Amino acid sequence: MTTFYRRLPRFDYVQPTSLDEALSLLGRYKADAKPLAGGTDLIPQVKGRDMAAPRVVVDLKAIPGLDAITYDATKGLTLGAMATIANVERSVLVREHYPMLSNALTTMASPQVRNRATVTGNICTAVPSADSAPTLLVLEAVLKLVSQKGERLVPITQFFTGPRQTVLTYDELITEIRIPSPPPKSRGVYLKLSPRKSMDLAVVGVAAFVVRDGETCKDVRIALGAVAPTPIREARAESALLGKKLTDESIEEAASAASSECRPIDDHRAAREYRCDMVYVLTRRALTQIKEEAL
Amino acid sequence: MDYAVIGTRVPRVDAREKVTGTAKYAADYSLPGMLWCKVLRSPVVHAKILNIDTSKAERLPGVKAVITAKDFGGWTWGFMATTRDEPPLAMGKVRYLHEGIAGVAAIDEEVAEAATELIKVDYEELPGVFDPEEAMKPGAPVIHDYRPNNVSVEYHWNYGDVEKAFAESYIVREDRFSTGRVTKGYLEPPASLAYYDPSGSITVWAAKQSPYFHYRHLAACFRLPLSKVRVVQPYIGGGFGGTKNDSVAGDFCAVMASKKTGKPVKFIYSQEEELMTSKRRHAMITYSKMGATKDGLLTAVQAKVIAEGGGYTAIGPLSMYLAGASIAIPYKLANFKYDGYRVFTNNPVCAAMRGHGITHTRFAHDLQMEMIAEELGIDFMEMRLRNAIDNPKPGTVYRTVNDVTLNTCGMKEALTAIKEDPIWAEREHAPKRVGSTSFGVGISGTAYVGGARQLGHQSCAAVIRLCEDGTANLLTGATDCGQGSDTVLCMIAAEELGMKLDDVVIKRVDTAYTPCDPGSYGSRVTLLAGQATQIAAAEVRKQLAEAAAKTWNAKPEEIQIRNSVVSLKSNPDKSMTLENLAKIASYSGSGAVIMGKGYSSYGLEPLDFKTGAGNGGTSYSFTAQATRLGVDLETGHTTVTDFLLAHDCGRPLNPIGAEGQNEGGAVQGLGQAIYEEFIIDQGHTRNSTFLDYKMPRSTDIPDIRIIDIITDDPNGPYGAKEASEGSHVSAPPSVMSAIHDATGIWFKEQPVTPEKIVKALKEAGKWGK
Amino acid sequence: MKEIRITVNGKPYELSVRPWATLLEVIREDLGLTGTKEGCGVGECGACTVIMNGKSVNACLVLAPEADGKEITTIEGLAQGEKLDPIQQAFYEIGGLQCGFCTPGMIMSTKALLAETPEPTDHEIRKGLEGNFCRCTGYTKIFESVREASRKSRR
Fold first, then answer.
1. d(CA A70, CA B494)
2. How confident is the model at residue B706 (pLDDT cuts 50, 70, 90)?
3. Looking at CA atoms only, how far is residue A25 from chain B in angstroms?
4. Contact B186 C101 (CB under 8 A)
5. What pLDDT was estimated at residue B588?
6. Which of C44, C93, C126 sits opposite B690 (nearest CB)?
7. Diameter of chain C by CA atoms?
8. If we measure between CA atoms, which residue out of B98, B89, B87 comes closest to residue B44?
9. Residue B1 has what pLDDT?
10. Residue A1 placed within a domain
11. Domain C86-154 maps to which CATH number in 1.10.287.3510, 3.40.50.2300, 3.40.640.10, 1.10.150.120?
């Protein structure tokens, strides 16, 4: 870069008032359009010319109902694409049924950013350190992707394809994040490690979710952020615990598996070795916390 | 002492404007018809500039001027006559990444930004050098032809007999310490609005903490008499040394563009531009050899300091002086040798920052002293108390081996205050371990110079104009860039005049009207502008007393003025308002004009950078600090819970201000100790945003307590010395000492990040244990 | 250009804005309300914090057209004539400011915090201000100012 921009490049702004209108705009402009939710990632990216200037920004916030947060014991939680992080974080429904999600969102950014940014936006941005991603991975969220051609449901485990890359096509939008009801006797924890306690990127994020049958783990889900090109589920660590009791030994084994499987990059934010070590520490802590929480 | 205003807790004089958003900063100014300026920067770190083609940019509609180095006719600037090596824009050669290449002025900022993209520059890249020790080696790429060995500043001082002292020492240690690449981190990026008017005068509204530096730069660059350069000072969004002392590429380009177009020209840097390009603290490596007796008394110190200088010299000669000159304070030391090297690299330019120069060597030596104490089995507090310089008896001075003279020294008293506080006294009773967190308490004892001087112009000045209604205007060239000096200076004027504080009014510096001033650096304003204000006020008071004496047929000595009421000491019935007296005094005869002027005289003593002898300022502050923290032995994360500072600032004149300065200084020191550092790879800064340059946030800082140690220094108004740079210097060694207490490991490199802690714990076989 | 209607500090405005302009640019440049500061322009520093429809936001991250129909409060909208808002009064008295550049944003974040949490704990104060940098004060007197503002607001 040779110029440090203070101004955004020129683009047009449209604010469709229906989903159809939004989809038709995306269908028409394709790569030249950028959907706008909270803008807390898009605006800095475009301003810094890290992202090519779109021809048109399609603001989705005037589409009725897209910010809804609903819960149903059988269907689970549905987060509309425009539900802000602050609203999801504070939702009584979310706090009651998905405390780990609420806790994960509290670790993100600042009040100002949480008031604007959306959970869906955090997912679409698809940075490896996205704080909501590990939690949504272990909660086995399903994303509803809609375009003019129709809709498809994509499990979040299949959504990310690389740093800032997803299966979302230019003419598609995520309209909902669906999160199944947690099974009975399940517990989840998200732990984030960052240099500062606030407004910081995860050097490592670990989400762990365990469903127990008696004392046995009948379902184990472990997801990691910031240690691979995308947020990932950690299958070896999960299988290390499956069918076992949560003990110091089994937890140790799962944590070691997670640490040896992860493939983080070495960059100015942290060295690969440190990230791997922290995957071990955080996985162990998360599982230990689950073990110690009374069911 | 019985003061009416001094020592009281008063709000800042600018607080109302600042809490209502009406205080104007440089970026808030605009003028009709104003153009916007943008700087094009180099994408390469070290290169010859073969050609700059601006024709396309010039043809872009809305572009009014394009500036390149040739517009400045080869003019360069720098701290000393022998080091004027920095051009306004890169001249023939680029020496660091994003050095300014060209400036564009256009009808708005968008057009200016777009136009920079149209300038074509041909570079011939040169091999770069990025490590100062590499740059000193023969055969390294040469950055400036006038310094073929890349050493931009070099000092060799030798006091006492170091060799003999080491030979006679019971213990000698040698260690390598280093400080990181850190920056000021103010929120207000550089900005200015410049107008070169048809009469041939320059006016700028510029974000400068030392506006008279800029005034001199502009006069020299544009070959104008100083009387034709006017720097009007807006409020300043933080200074901390470096960039806002000096001028930046945008400053020169905006004035040149204004000269070319006849229009006012404004620029504002982006924060990333600031973090990437502007002057920051030197990173220094200190190879230190320290000796002591069996009882822990220091015998000798030998320090070889290698500083990374970046692409130009800037204020480096002073930085290297300060790093060496502080070696013999605050601990008694009869022998020291200092070899200082400031070395050019192809990294951004290093200059002054709060704690200037001194923070590096004090960090090294305070820590090394603890390491020696550990080897000798001496308590760390006891080690410091044994070595600390005693407070000289009133009327006497303590003189170090290099002729640094102390009139007061609160080091022992400050250490004792920490020693007696529960944070230290009861540290053994506090929990040592909770889960994976190991707690530790550490201390430091450091010194800092106040009333700092450079070579050349040193004095501050003040003028007080009495208004006929009994209020007063205070004029000074000394700048409040946030530290609170305007408030303190008004307090001093009010104290001396017997006036209500609200009746003394100070405005921002305007070089066309306010007396010339060296600048706001080195904790000098309260001391030197304070003395000047005191003298100016005394002159006004004298004239008032004479007028009152005449009215009452009394002697001037019998007049007292307090809280804007004038009375006769011997007869309290005789009294009148100050307003009344002001009228009498102002209207007497043909109408007297009551004014007082003063300039400072403290600290005008011999100073020699070549030998390191003498005082770099008027007085010295002393700080003892205790830090309590927890280190997570698994993640390496440090959580600092408590700072206790016992600080000898002579006497706090505005306690709110002094506390705030000490708290802010200490937290900035915390940032340097464990959070902040530029990661620069082959000249490319990898973390040039506030997301990645990790300054402490509200959730990261400890509870802070301050204990004032009152020493009443004779070389400061009402006994005042400096505050904030001392607390900035005390924080890192105290934090390191606490981390050592928590982990058993000595960390000698700043910052001590979680990653470094985990690495060290692993090497020691202690990770997670 | 886009036509927008916004209410700023109780005053309605009809403006024609560039679609790529930010709310911060509109507030500072079109309305001349320069109390709201730009520190970083990318949502990291909080100096541009304003309250939009009751919520604190970084004005640098809001596009001007997004603000259409919204009610916005800036630092200039807090005092009532000569009378400072209790938060401003607390910062003024306690000394929760030095250079003053972060102050408008800090005060607006405090406003949002106290509106939701009138008696914040120390942790809530720190968390409420986590998006606002201050480099001068070391935050200590800012926390005290927020506590004092909370006391004043409840009186």
1. 64
2. very high
3. 27
4. yes
5. 82
6. C44
7. 47
8. B98
9. 65
10. no
11. 1.10.150.120
Is A274 within 8 Å of B98 when comparing Cβ atoms? no
A3: tokens are: 């110029």
Q: Considering chain B, what is the average pLDDT of its residues?
A: 97
Three-class SS string for B317-381? HHHHHHHHHCCCCCECCCCEEEEEEEEECCCCCEECCCCCCHHHHHHHHHHHHHHHHHHHCCCHH
Cα–Cα separations (whole angstroms), residue B618 to B330, B527, B767 = 15, 8, 48
Q: What is the pLDDT of residue B769?
A: 84
Task: Please give the Cα distance from B462 to B476 (Å, whole number).
Answer: 5
The encoded tokens of residue C154 equal 């409840």
CATH topology identical between B26-126+184-277 and B280-453+607-763? no
A/B interface, count of CB pairs below 8 Å? 81
Per-residue tens of pLDDT for chain C, all 155 residues: 999 999 999 999 999 999 999 999 999 999 999 999 999 999 999 999 999 999 999 999 999 999 999 999 999 999 999 999 999 999 999 999 999 999 999 999 999 999 999 999 999 999 999 999 999 999 999 999 999 999 999 87
CA atoms within 13 A on the CB side of B436: 17
B424 φ, ψ (degrees, to nearest 5): -100, -45
DSSP per-residue letters across B519-544: -S-TT-IIIIIHHHHHHHHHHHHHHH
Q: CA of A137: how far to CAs of A127, A203, B37, B193, B756, in Å?
A: 14, 18, 48, 52, 31
Please tell me whether residue B651 adopts helix, strand or coil conformation: coil
Residues of chain B in contact with residue A274, where contact means CB-CB under 8 angstroms, are 754-755, 758-759
What lies within 8 Å, CB to CB, of B435 at 6+ separation is none
For residue C30, the 8-state DSSP code is: I
Whether residue A200 and residue B694 make contact (CB cut-off 8 A), yes or no, is yes
The dihedral through the CA atoms of B484, B490, B496, B498 has a sign that is negative
Q: Which residues contact B433 (CB under 8 A, 6 or more apart)?
A: B439
CB of A252 within 8 Å of any CB in chain B? Answer: no
Predicted-complex ipTM score: 0.99
Mutate which: C20, C98, C126, C145, vs B, most B CBs within 10 A: C98
d(CA C27, CA C67): 11
CA count, 13 A, side-chain hemisphere, A98 = 33
Of C18, C68, C109, which is closest to A111 when you measure between CB atoms? C109
Q: Does C42 touch chain B (CB under 8 A)?
A: yes
Distance from CA of A267 to the nearest CA of B (A): 9
DSSP label at residue A52: P
Q: In CATH, which superfamily holds the domain spanning C2-77?
A: Beta-grasp domain (3.10.20.30)
Please judge whether A1 and B43 are an interchain contact, meaning their C-beta atoms are less than 8 angstroms apart.
Answer: yes
- CATH class, range B459-599: alpha beta
Measured distance CA(B480)–CA(B753) in Å, rounded: 34
**pLDDT of amino acid A295:** 59
Weakest mean pLDDT among A155-169, B235-249, C25-39: B235-249
Instruction: Provide the token pair at A134.
Output: 């590990």
Alpha helices (H) in B66-208, listed in sequence order: 109-116, 132-135, 162-168
Please give the structure tokens belonging to residue A236: 């070896």
- Domain boundary pick from A179, A208, A230: A179
Contact B317, B80 (CB under 8 A): yes
| Mean pLDDT value across residues B708-724 | 97
State how far residue B12 is from chain C, nearest Cα, in angstroms.
7
Q: Is the dihedral of CA B85, B91, B96, B98 positive or negative?
A: positive
The residues with which B362 forms a beta bridge, in sequence order, are none
Cα(A289)–Cα(A145) distance, integer angstroms: 35
Task: Find out whether A255 and A290 touch, Cβ atoms under 8 Å.
Answer: no
